[in-house]
Specification:
The protein is built from 9 helices and 2 strands. The chain is mainly alpha-helical. A two-stranded antiparallel ribbon has the order 1-2. α3 runs parallel beside α5, α5 crosses α6 and α6 packs antiparallel against α7.
Length: 275
């Protein structure tokens, strides 16, 4: 526990300053590196990192997507990104076809799907920061949904947990913890809305913030469980060891990826702030 806390503090010292650099190329590089490293962990977990014909184009795709999202016109970016994604999936299955059964169909499908999911998750996180005037606030919102859910689900489960959620995937998670994490996250969203109204001069929509907190927390927990399910299926405990006591990039950003995708979609449909 001590190591976990110390590493958490060190991570904050390293990553928090980047919150003030979201409009710079440094932030794009950070997101690109995280995307590529997270995908490497996943491909290694799936056992396909030893196939350069799959790993190299997939890694390049994951690293390049954030740069395209920042520096290309939005319409042009999607015009390129969508067919590029389809071509990458087609290429991965071509490699499977000619691999002479050295890659299984399960590995192939998982590698293609997870490449798109991981690359899109980090890219949408970047694209949220590019939303005019409120980008930084949206990024912080994603982090609140992910980290508050994880923190309060842990403590609520530890204090009141009686019923296991999905023990075959995550033995320590409980129904009570999931409910507690969700309720505290909704409350945190409402407090965050009040802080923005009081100190940032914004006009938040409290109902939208409440619903956003609900879906953000549920998505955060689902993203965590999805990545845990993959780990359990492959028989590993952590995706990596880059963060002692925490695991790898994916072990720390599994929830963030899911929430960033949901938040980007949610923001496109609803306005968190009234004009």
């Amino acid at each position: 526990m001590k190591t976990r806390i110390l590493v958490s503090l060190a991570m904050c010292v390293v990553f928090v300053p980047f919150l003030f650099l979201t409009r710079t190329v440094a932030f794009v590089i950070l997101v690109s590196v995280l995307s590529a490293l997270a995908l490497f962990e996943m491909l290694r977990c799936l056992g396909v990192h030893g196939f350069p014909a799959v790993s190299i184009p997939s890694e390049l795709f994951a690293a390049a997507l954030p740069f395209g999202a920042r520096y290309l016109d939005r319409a042009l970016f999607f015009e390129i990104a969508v067919p590029a994604s389809a071509l990458l999936v087609f290429w991965v299955f071509c490699v499977f076809t000619f691999s002479r059964d050295r890659m299984s169909l399960e590995q192939t499908g998982a590698a293609a799907a997870m490449t798109l999911y991981i690359a899109a998750g980090f890219t949408f996180l970047l694209m949220l920061t590019d939303v005019e005037t409120i980008g930084l606030y949206l990024l912080i919102m994603v982090l609140i949904a992910s980290w508050m859910t994880d923190t309060f689900a842990y403590f609520t489960g530890m204090l009141f947990g009686r019923h296991k959620l999905i023990p075959e995937i995550s033995p320590k998670k409980t129904v009570e913890g999931a409910v507690g994490g969700t309720l505290f996250t909704v409350a945190a969203f409402l407090v965050y809305a009040f802080v923005l109204q009081r100190f940032a001069g914004l006009s938040p929509s409290y109902p939208v913030f409440a619903v956003g907190g609900l879906f953000g927390s549920l998505t955060s927990q689902a993203g965590d469980l999805v990545m845990s399910a993959v780990k359990r299926k492959r028989g590993i405990k952590d995706y990596g060891k880059i963060f002692p006591g925490h695991g790898g990039i994916l072990d720390r950003f599994d929830s963030v990826l899911a929430v960033s995708v949901t938040a980007f979609f949610f923001e496109s449909l609803f306005d968190f702030f009234r004009v």
